[in-house]
């Protein structure tokens, strides 16, 4: 297996950090934009898309700041992280995403995140 490449994306989101955190850290919030349905039992989150299920473990969480998950079937140290950053000067709120993909799939993964975050912005009423 080839090594995965780390990539990062940043999206300005017109939302309060507290509200945004509910959409990135809770099963009900994630169900609104990230997957068709999300269930959790403790640290294990089950994401469902078109009937297919993926399991992820919640690795880290800091209220109103970030969540980090690792896909259960991946055993390569990769993860995906959703981090809320507030600009000290402008107070702009950004969602900073860190993820990993195979080198030849990075652009496709970035496009997928862009589509997902576009859905998130619609749910939040952010342009």
UniProtKB/TrEMBL annotation:
Gene3D superfamilies: 3.30.530.20. InterPro entries: START-like_dom_sf, START_2. Pfam families: START_2. Residues 1-125 form the START-like domain. This is SRPBCC domain-containing protein. It comes from Cerina litoralis.
């Amino acid at each position: 297996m080839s090594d995965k490449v780390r990539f990062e994306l940043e999206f300005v989101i017109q939302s309060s950090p507290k509200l945004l955190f509910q959409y990135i850290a809770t099963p009900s919030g994630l169900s609104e934009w990230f997957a068709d349905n999300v269930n959790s039992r403790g640290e294990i989150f089950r994401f469902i898309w078109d009937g297919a299920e993926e399991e992820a473990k919640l690795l880290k969480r800091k209220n109103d700041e970030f969540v980090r998950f690792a896909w259960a079937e991946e055993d390569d140290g990769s993860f995906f992280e959703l981090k809320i950053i507030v600009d000290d000067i402008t107070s702009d709120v950004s969602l900073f995403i860190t993820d990993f993909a195979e080198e030849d799939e990075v652009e496709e993964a970035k496009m997928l995140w862009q589509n997902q975050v576009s859905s998130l912005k619609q749910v939040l009423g952010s342009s």
